[in-house]
Amino acid sequence: MIEKTYCEEVKPELDGQRVKLAGWVYSNMRVGKKIFLWIRDSTGIVQTVIAKNVVGEEVFEKAKKLGRESSVIVEGIVKADERAPGGAEVHVEKLEVIQAVSEFPIPENPEQASPELLLDYRHLHIRTPKVSAIMKVKETLIMAAREWLLKNGWHEVFPPILVTGAVEGGATLFKLKYFDKYAYLSQSAQLYLEAAIFGLEKVWSLTPSFRAEKSRTRRHLTEFWHLELEGAWMDLWDIMKVEEELVSYMVQRTLELRKKEIEMFRDDLTTLKNTEPPFPRISYDEAIEILQSKGVKIEWGDDMGADEERVLTEEFDRPFFVYGYPKHIKAFYMKEDPQDPRKVLAADMLAPEGYGEIIGGSEREDNYDKLVQRIIEEGMDPKDYEWYLDLRKYGSVPHSGFGLGVERLVAWVLKLDHIRWATLFPRTPARIYP
Ligand code: 4AD
After folding, report:
1. Topology (CATH) of 122-422
2. Ligand 1 proximity of 406 Cβ (cutoff 6 Å)
3. For the chain, how big is the Rg over CA atoms in Å?
4. Whose Cα sits closest to atom 21 in ligand 1?
């Protein structure tokens, strides 16, 4: 490894000091006998100045030809200069070209390229500053979640990805050959987390989840990162409190640590700052009334899709909950509402500004007979869920949990126009390469 100074460390305070930068050419502009070579690394961009009378004719000619993304090592002296980005530039004394590139497929401003080009060249696109910023924000949100979960006594567990049953409906299962049987890619770790609460009480996991969703929307991936929690002795209202505290901490901490990156995407931080709990709570019934009053054609009992949720988010300037959904549009494991058997004790958290659902959660059916009945009603075979049903036979307790779609949260925090930009190599029905 080479001893180097990172671009973000080049500041006016280093004036007069010698530094060695290692990175990639971000832009190359010649003005008379000088070349302004902007160098990029994982931390930022620095302006370097190559003067013919310092480096000599040969190096100057070589530098002139360096295209974007050429890899270089430069050594030189820092000069404080208000005109340079970051207030300092490096006057180059030595230039080492690791690999010269003549043409890079992604334009300097990737927004000028079509999404198709960026996705075809995603392996090259991900080195651009805005993609790096998205990945840093995602990493920080997860780091913050870990901090919060550790502080609040939640145990991390590592559930399997190869599974034998559906959690969220058979229609979106990816099936694969497993020796002489079939298996599926996990849609959610939930059932395994439910088993884990009997030993650890408060558990969480972060796993890839898979959905063979053919729907090509701005908020669906076929592979996404799923942050799931499951807590024993908790009812729906308890788990909603956990959800808002966790999301609040994740967003506030990321605002604190990654403001610069967030501001590359957002001028207005209001909705992110508005994440102090409690979040507003409205019932499904109220949501339907609001939608009908705004002219949306929807009846009690209908599921809310992205369009309906978008309209609903216009009413809020912060994340909010919708609770008390009709039973027939929700999953088999959700506990029936004892006050109204048409409903289940479920709540989704919706992000404002049109983003909609980022969390799906519920209290779980903890009664053996009722759970068997729900499995049959959904057209499934209780035999396939024998181990899961055992959990209702041996010391069953009230419990609740939820799943947060990490890329959906990132998409909202950064106001991305599509969830695919929130993941390193997006997987959608149309794309599994690169
Ligand atoms: O609402 P979902 O389907 O709930 C579950 O999977 C539960 N078993 C989770 C649990 O209770 N442990 O998914 C949870 C969240 C959604 O709110 C959404 O944020 C995200 O996962 N999600 C997706 N994100 C991207 N692409 C998809 N196709 C997604 N499907 C769900």
Report:
1. BirA Bifunctional Protein; domain 2 (3.30.930)
2. no
3. 26
4. 405
Dist. CA 188 → ligand 1 center (Å): 7
Classified by CATH at the fold level, domain 7-99 comes out as OB fold (Dihydrolipoamide Acetyltransferase, E2P) (2.40.50)
Degrees to nearest 5, angle at CA 285 with 279 and 290:
75
Say whether pLDDT at 193 is over 90.
yes
Q: Return the pLDDT at 267.
A: 97
Q: What SS3 state is found at 230?
A: strand
Q: Whose CA is nearest to atom 29 of ligand 1?
A: 220
Does the ipTM surpass 0.95? Answer: yes
Pocket test for ligand 1, best of 206, 207, 211 (most atoms within 8 A of CB): 211
Give pLDDT, residue 216.
83
Ligand 1 centre to CA of 226 (Å) is 7
**pLDDT at res. 215:** 79
Domain assignments of the chain as residue spans, ordered by start? 7-99, 122-422
- Does 55 score more than 90 pLDDT? yes
Ligand 1 atom closest to the CA of 222, numbered from 1: 28
Return the beta strands (E) in 309-421 as ranges: 320-323, 336-337, 340-344, 346-351, 356-363, 399-405
